[in-house]
Amino acid sequence: LLTIIYPSLVFFGASLGKDALVPLLSLVLLFLIFKLIKSFSWIKFLVFYIILGVLMGSRIYIGYAVLLTFIICWPLFSNLNFKKKLLYAPFMIIILGFLPQIFAGQGYYGINFMKIFLNRGMITYYRERISIPNPKISPITGNPVYDSTPVGVEPPPAAESSITKTPSAVVKTPSPIIETPSVTESSAPVDKSIAKRGRGSAIEVETGFENPFKFLRNSVISFIYTSLGPFPWQLRYLRHFLILPELVVWYFALFFAIKGMKKPARSYVFTLCIFSLLVLGSLSVFLANFGITARIRIPAFISIFCLTPFGINWTSNNKIIKIFSKSLDILIKA
Length: 334
Hints:
Elements: H1 7-15, H2 17-38, H3 42-58, H4 60-77, H5 82-96, H6 99-104, H7 111-117, H8 120-128, E1 136-137, E2 144-145, E3 163-165, E4 170-172, H9 192-196, H10 212-228, H11 244-260, H12 267-285, H13 290-296, H14 298-305, H15 319-333
Antiparallel strand pairs: 1-2, 3-4
Helix pairs in contact: 1-2, 2-3, 2-4, 2-12, 2-14, 3-4, 4-12, 10-12, 12-14
């Protein structure tokens, strides 16, 4: 119930319908995974299948996280006997692969999506080009202009001079001189709002593909920024400080969630952790902007918030928490 007043969800959900729909679908799907683990039925799986398809069409990478969470957790924790698991699992894995194609047009298990985005050139482009806080702005188009070509993208061929070669001689044909008005940065009209749009919360972490140790180090840094950032020293404008209360609550919630994991783990604790790690891990690969990150990581944060009560001692004797826990167990077992 506390997620109703989760700041990022309230702020982004009020202006962007998708940012309210995706967390809702994610939580419903996680709940259905719990129910499928406790008592499997094909009707429940069909409902799970349809809702997961809708999530794939809305935000495919969050759909991937749910899909992989189910594939990992259901065989491990399902109450079915081993023979039924061995019979049902391959069939479900095969038909789940059609969801990205049916609902997002990305091929079997989203192979087209992976080809486009999971490559060195595209990852470098997102991490090192889009994230530049103050790029040069073209005075003509108003779009950002980058000094270097992204990795994996061939530069355009140089313009050929107007020279006509013949077997007998080389004749140089002069190009016609056309006078054009000179356009400079100062004289060309530039929309400053376009130049600054989305750049205030940009963050740049190099990929480090040239060195495996640097790649590993930068990947860890990117994951830390994605899961714990932005840090106070990364806030550039006064409006950015509105996220600080949310971050403080998140740090406390994360501490108690980790503390609660020391107790005998249940299937849903592992499931929520796997889902959150998959979401945050995929985000860290393409980390470019804290504003975008704060929107997309909402489902992962809410999942961790659900684990917080396990690490708070007073909740074990709290009547409200007991009633809520019993109601949750009844829903899962239903």
